[in-house]
Design a protein that fits this description.
The structure is a single chain. The chain is α+β, with helices and mostly antiparallel strands and about 425 residues long. It has 3 domains: about 5-125, Adenine-n6-DNA-methyltransferase TaqI, Chain A, domain 2 (Alpha-Beta Complex); about 165-245 and about 390-395, no CATH class; about 250-390, Adenine-n6-DNA-methyltransferase TaqI, Chain A, domain 2 (Alpha-Beta Complex). It has 13 helices and 21 strands. The protein has helices at about 10-15, 90-95, 115-120, 130-170, 170-180, 185-200, 205-210, 215-225, 310, 345-350, 355-360, 375-380, 385-425, and strands at about 5-10, 15-20, 30-35, 40-45, 55, 65-70, 75, 80-85, 120-125, 230, 240, 245, 250-255, 265-270, 285-290, 295, 300-305, 315, 325-330, 330-335, 380-385. The strands form 7 sheets. The chain has a 4-stranded antiparallel beta sheet. It has a 4-stranded antiparallel beta sheet with strand order 13-20-17-18. A 4-stranded mixed beta sheet has the order 15-14-19-16, with no helix packed on it. A hairpin with a 7-residue loop joins strand 5 and strand 6 (about 65-70). Helix 2 packs across helix 4. The relative contact order is 0.11. The mean pLDDT is about 95.
């Protein structure tokens, strides 16, 4: 060890206190995070604790630990650090992540962490706060990079979904052409207006793009040419001229047949690891096939059961080998783009707000166990997008998904490194001066 470590009880290291009651009817809009045993769950107008702070679950979700930078309100399902007793808050956060909280839980039907028992836990920590900060700094560097990757991925996802909405829901390039023609412009003016709508660039910026990057300009122009310059009536309302309406099954297959023999060791995706936003699934593991939904790369998994559907649980399958079949919960609806439409289209349809509203409305069953109906979704009247336009959309959007996957894989590697370092750094086994050497 590079510095002195001392043994003490947890209650001598920090002081934990139960959070505060705050019924929903008593909450008012504001910027203050409300922290439950599962993390930040709501916001309020008043804070109870000055940040930075550290919170862990007392009832409900036990074992998760949260570092809160700003002032906050810890709810009564939590324990928060009332007094750090001069210790580093960030180190305290990482240290509390190493504790097995179930050892200190009550033996009730609904177990909860007993604060007094937890305070009696025997621990060993660096006496030097500087050493605490060095340990926290090593781990924080990894967490900061993971957080940066998550932020980039959220941006990539938002960009791709914004393009889908602009092209296939709001018809912005079509409407830009119509507005230009109605203003007395020429077909060339209409095309330029569509290019502006697609790229977000001004006329001057497009002129500069043409001069400096003629190939990019030509691609943008070709994309704009794919959009018509008029609308037509349909059973769905006004749609771009030349586009059609049919059942959604013309675009998407629902629950296509897959073959995976019972007992086969295959990648398994649990419902808890399906994201509520973004497309990246977490923690795919190998498990013997029993009873479940089967899928391959290019499929989209839509949670069909309440509350998972309402919460947005959806994943794009891009984590298998080319010849692998994966499996998971029976509560997935598998969606796959019909040929010749690009595979990514099924994912962006599954994330579309209109589709999700229909999926929720299709749910049947007893309260708390309602499920969306795949047959009803397949029979939805839906706008049939021109194939060439979907290919162009995929050319633009698919790289966003691939880049997000790359960031996700990097974050998994960083998480593995952090998780391997955590117990070694927090036990004194690993010297901070040797990390990264």
């Amino acid at each position: 060890m590079s510095s002195e470590w001392v043994k003490m009880r947890l209650g001598d290291f920090i002081d934990l206190k139960r959070g505060y009651d705050l019924p929903k009817k008593s909450r008012s809009a504001g910027p203050i995070p409300l922290v439950s045993s599962a993390g930040v769950s709501d916001q309020h107008s008043e804070a109870k604790v000055r940040g930075p702070g550290v919170v862990t679950g007392r009832y409900g979700t036990i074992g998760d630990v949260f570092y809160i930078e700003e002032d906050f309100w810890p709810l009564n399902t939590t324990l928060y650090v009332r007094d750090f007793k001069g210790n580093d808050p960030r180190f305290t956060y990482y240290f509390l992540k190493t504790i097995d909280y179930l050892q200190y839980s009550d033996k009730a039907a609904v177990p909860g962490v007993n604060r007094n028992h937890l305070h009696m836990a025997e621990i060993s920590v660096p006496k030097s706060v500087d050493e605490q900060r060095r340990i926290a700094s090593v781990l924080s560097c990894l967490d900061d990079k993971i957080e940066a990757n998550d932020t980039i991925n959220q941006t990539l996802e938002q960009m791709a979904q914004a393009i889908f909405k602009s092209w296939f829901v709001d018809f912005e390039p079509v409407k830009a052409k119509i507005a230009a023609l109605e203003a007395g412009g020429s077909e060339e003016d209409a095309l330029l207006a569509a290019m502006q709508a697609i790229s977000g660039k001004s006329e001057a910026e497009l002129t500069r793009l043409q001069a400096e990057h003629p190939e990019q300009y030509a691609e943008l122009r070709a994309t704009a040419e794919l959009f018509p310059s008029a609308m037509q009536d349909s059973e769905l309302g006004e749609i771009p001229e030349g586009w059609g309406v049919d059942h959604l099954s013309e675009l998407v297959q629902f629950n296509p047949r897959r073959s995976l023999k019972k007992g086969t060791l295959a990648p398994y995706l649990d419902m808890k690891n399906v994201p509520t936003s973004g497309h990246l699934a977490e923690d795919v593991v190998l498990r013997e096939m029993n009873s479940g939904t089967k899928f391959v790369n290019g499929d989209t998994l839509l949670a069909r059961i309440t509350p998972c559907l309402e919460n947005g649980k959806t994943a794009y399958v891009d984590f298998l080998d080319s010849d692998q079949v994966g499996w998971g919960s029976t509560e997935y609806i598998v969606m796959r783009s019909q040929e010749p439409y690009p595979e990514s289209m099924s994912y962006f349809i599954a994330r579309d707000g209109n589709f999700r509203q229909h999926a929720i409305q299709s749910m049947t069953g007893t309260s708390g166990r309602q499920r969306a109906n795949a047959k009803a979704l397949a029979e939805l009247p839906w706008l049939i997008y021109p194939r060439r336009l979907t290919e162009e959309f995929d050319r633009i959007a698919a790289p966003y998904l691939k880049l997000a996957k790359s960031h996700g894989n990097q974050s998994k590697s960083l998480s593995a490194i952090r998780d391997s370092l955590l117990p070694k750094l927090l036990s004194g086994e690993l010297d901070t001066t040797k990390v990264g050497a």
